[in-house]
């Protein structure tokens, strides 16, 4: 299992996820840079993702939906900020109401930074998500963000091995 640590800090409003992969930085970066690869690992295993928009560029936008086993669609979006390929990118991560990526105003938005760091064994991916308030963070914790994130990231090894 690549996820080695998940640390929620409600008081500090951050969720930090650390995962280690036995692949070079460029290869792990490609998982996020290629929407067809990202679809295979974004979201919990039983909720496959479909990216309808994908631009991992400064100012770019990504819009996706995850489909539940019952066929329900759950929409989300990323608004990309800085990109330092293949080392780091940051983005606003929010819930959406539709396939156009219309933000869901009643649900929290976080600011996330993904950092790809070379290690002796491959790549360490560290994701730090910062929420607007402790209440917003608690809301996503109650929705299962820790379990969902772990399940999603733990799918990356199989993709890298393919």
TrEMBL record:
Gene3D superfamilies hit by this protein: 3.30.530.20
Residue ranges constituting the Activator of Hsp90 ATPase homologue 1/2-like C-terminal domain according to the UniProt record: 23-160
Domain of life: Bacteria
Pfam families the UniProt entry points to: AHSA1
Family, per entry: Belongs to the AHA1 family.
Protein name per its UniProtKB record: Polyketide cyclase
Organism: Janibacter melonis
Taxonomic lineage: Bacteria, Bacillati, Actinomycetota, Actinomycetes, Micrococcales
